[in-house]
Every structure is written in structure tokens, then in C-alpha cells.
């Protein structure tokens, strides 16, 4: 087996809490291997670039003891991340993942998944974690379903998933009439 040599680590950030968690992992790896940490933000097409101070702030939050390079680029995030990794001969990419599965992943896509499939190097995915303010046994938070707007512990509620999958059983289990689950 080939020795694991890590000199260049890429941490793409979207400035979310999930991304910040992955950033802490990337910084720990960089310290451990004495590697250079590249912190990259990709501005997707037709999107507000956001605050110019966000990237330096995200890099500063990673702590000291690591050599950090920051960069901002524009484009489709997965494509831009892979291109950056190739151009800078990155040894490992460290990314957060929202943990979406099934229909929500199919509808929303996954930058992390696309990077894993296309990257020329290893990719370490860091899952979202329960925040320190939320107990592990706390009830799930209910947010509006992205399809119908009804409160749901999932991104897409059971009834809408059933309609998307054309699964009458899931719609009937939800106790909602299919007409209520149509997008508003």
C-alpha cells in the first residue's frame, strides 16, 4: 500500500455551519500533516457574491498553526472545486455534507456527491453534527416542506415524497389529501 502523503488540503466553504464543521476537520488534518490548507469559496452563477469579509473570517476561524491560502472563484461549485484541486495538485478535499438522501438529494443535487465522483484525489466528507445547543434526544425541528409548505421534520414531507414517487401508500399514511400536497 502506498504511503499517504498529504501536502495540499482543499476546504471548499459555503459559509454554513456544516461547512465550518468540515473546516475544523480540514485544519486539524493540515496541522497533523504539516500541510498547506486552501480555503476556497465558489460563487455560483447568478448569485450575490456576499460579503467580501466572509472568506477571511472563515479562514481566521480555523485557528492558528496552519499555513492557509484563500481563493474565491465563480462557476458551478462542483466543477470549480474539482478544477481548483487539479490546478493546485491537491492531495485531499475536505467537505461538509448535509446528509440528504433520496428525493431531496435528487431534487436539490449534491455538490459534495458531484465532487466525490469527479475529484482526482481523495475526498473526506464530514457529516452535519447535532449542535451543542440541541440535545441528542431533543424532538426534531419542524420546518416548512419545500414542496407544499406544511410543517415537517424532513426537507420534503412524507405526502410530497409519496406524490413525487407516485406512491399512494405514502400519501395515505401521511393522513393528508393529495390535493393539499400540490405546490403552492
Secondary structure elements and pairings:
Elements (H helix, E strand, L loop, with lengths): L7 E5 L4 H17 L2 E8 L10 H7 L6 E8 L2 H11 L4 E6 L4 H7 L2 H8 L3 E6 L15 E2 L6 E2 L5 H8 L2 H6 L11
Parallel strand pairs: 1-2, 1-4, 2-3, 4-5
Antiparallel strand pairs: 6-7
Helix pairs in contact: 3-5
Q: Can you characterise this structure?
A:
The protein is α/β, with parallel strands linked by helices. It folds into 2 domains: 8-127, HUPs (Rossmann fold, 3-Layer(aba) Sandwich), CATH 3.40.50; 143-181, no CATH class. It contains 7 helices and 7 strands. The strands form 2 sheets. A 5-stranded parallel beta sheet has the order 3-2-1-4-5, sandwiched between helices. The longest helix has 17 residues, at 17-33. Mean pLDDT is 79; it is low at 103-108, 130-136 and 177-184.
Number of helices: 7
Task: Let me know the number of strands.
Answer: 7
Strand line-up across the major sheet? 3-2-1-4-5
- What structural class should be given to the helix and strand makeup? alpha/beta
Described by the principal axes of the CA atoms, the overall outline is elongated
For the record, what CATH class of the largest domain applies?
A: Alpha Beta
Overall residue-averaged pLDDT value: 79
Order of helices and strands: EHEHEHEHHEEEHH
Q: What is the makeup of the main sheet?
A: 5 strands, parallel
Binned strand content? 15-25%
Kindly report the CATH topology of the largest domain: Rossmann fold
CATH superfamily of the largest domain: HUPs
Gross CATH architecture of the largest domain: 3-Layer(aba) Sandwich
List the uncertain runs: 103-108, 130-136, 177-184
- Nearest-angstrom radius of gyration? 19 Å
Rounded to the nearest angstrom, the distance between the terminal CA atoms is 55 Å
Q: Return the domain count.
A: 2
Fraction of helical residues: 25-40%
Amino acid at each position: 500500500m502506498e504511503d499517504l502523503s498529504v501536502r495540499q488540503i482543499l476546504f471548499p466553504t459555503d459559509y454554513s455551519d456544516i461547512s465550518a464543521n468540515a473546516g475544523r476537520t480540514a485544519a486539524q488534518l493540515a496541522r497533523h500533516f504539516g500541510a498547506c490548507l486552501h480555503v476556497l469559496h465558489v460563487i455560483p452563477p447568478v448569485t450575490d457574491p456576499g460579503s467580501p469579509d466572509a472568506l477571511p473570517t472563515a479562514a481566521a476561524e480555523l485557528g492558528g498553526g496552519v499555513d492557509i491560502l484563500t481563493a474565491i472563484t465563480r462557476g458551478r461549485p462542483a466543477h470549480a472545486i474539482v478544477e481548483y484541486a487539479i490546478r493546485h495538485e491537491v492531495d485531499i478535499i475536505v467537505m461538509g455534507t448535509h446528509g440528504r438522501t433520496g428525493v431531496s438529494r435528487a431534487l436539490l443535487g449534491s455538490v459534495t456527491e458531484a465532487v466525490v465522483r469527479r475529484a482526482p484525489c481523495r475526498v473526506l466528507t464530514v457529516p452535519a453534527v447535532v449542535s451543542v445547543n440541541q440535545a441528542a434526544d431533543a424532538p426534531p425541528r419542524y420546518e416548512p416542506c419545500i414542496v407544499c409548505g406544511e410543517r415537517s421534520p424532513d426537507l420534503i414531507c412524507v405526502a410530497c415524497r409519496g406524490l413525487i414517487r407516485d406512491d399512494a401508500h405514502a400519501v395515505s399514511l401521511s393522513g393528508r389529501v393529495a390535493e393539499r400536497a400540490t405546490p403552492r
